[in-house]
């Protein structure tokens, strides 16, 4: 899964299987320290060949922590709880979604996402299933507009209203988890 939005400074990283955790780590933020300094990077993809502790940093992030000409460098990293998030939650309905199947990308959460639920209008919330690239509801989500409840790994939830069945369109909100 690629992040829907990128930090303005371009500081992103692909994480190995342990940190990416089948998509659970996507959208998390990691503090990375190298010879040149410390930066926050957003995990935006899987690096299948990366060992635990190895991050495949974007060009911008790498240059901020060490000399890119070195290729591979020693860094110290840690996942950051409640990192500063510039914007509210954002959603993108996956291409191929319909009133009978829904694929959903969630962004700007800050922490790893524990669960996503969707309700058609004022109906009851129904849980989505995690995929490596996002979330799906396999049976009849309805035509929308939807309410979406996002819960992070620390138990905080927020509900965004008015999500439409508009595949491929980024739908930003002002709703935040913290």
How would you describe this protein?
This protein is mostly beta strands. It has 2 domains: 12-79, Barwin-like endoglucanases (Beta Barrel); 90-172, Expansin, cellulose-binding-like domain (Immunoglobulin-like), CATH 2.60.40. It is built from 2 helices and 14 strands, in the order βαβββαββββββββββ. The two termini are 23 Å apart. Residues 29-74 form the RlpA-like protein double-psi beta-barrel domain. Pfam families: DPBB_1, Expansin_C. This is Expansin (Peptidoglycan-binding protein). Residues 90-161 form the Expansin-like CBD domain.
Secondary structure elements and their pairing?
Layout: E1 12-15, H1 17-20, E2 29-34, E3 37-46, E4 55-57, H2 59-65, E5 76-79, E6 90-93, E7 102-107, E8 113-120, E9 126-127, E10 129-130, E11 135-137, E12 146-152, E13 157-163, E14 170-172
Parallel strand pairs: 1-3
Antiparallel strand pairs: 1-4, 2-3, 2-5, 6-7, 6-14, 7-11, 8-9, 8-12, 10-11, 12-13
Decide which structural class fits the backbone: mainly beta
Radius of gyration: 17 Å
CATH architecture of the largest domain: Sandwich
Number of domains: 2
**CATH homologous superfamily of the largest domain - what is it?**
Expansin, cellulose-binding-like domain
Helicity range of the residues?
A: under 10%
Any idea of the CATH topology of the largest domain?
Answer: Immunoglobulin-like
- Rough outline: elongated
Put simply, the count of helices is 2
For the biggest β-sheet, the strand order reads 4-1-3-2-5
Taking all residues together, what is the mean pLDDT?
Answer: 92
| Major sheet details | 5 strands, mixed
Number of strands: 14
Query: Helices and strands, in N-to-C order?
Result: EHEEEHEEEEEEEEEE
Which stretches are low in confidence, meaning pLDDT under 50 for 5 or more residues running? none
Beta content comes to: 35-45%
CATH class of the largest domain: Mainly Beta
Distance between the termini: 23 Å
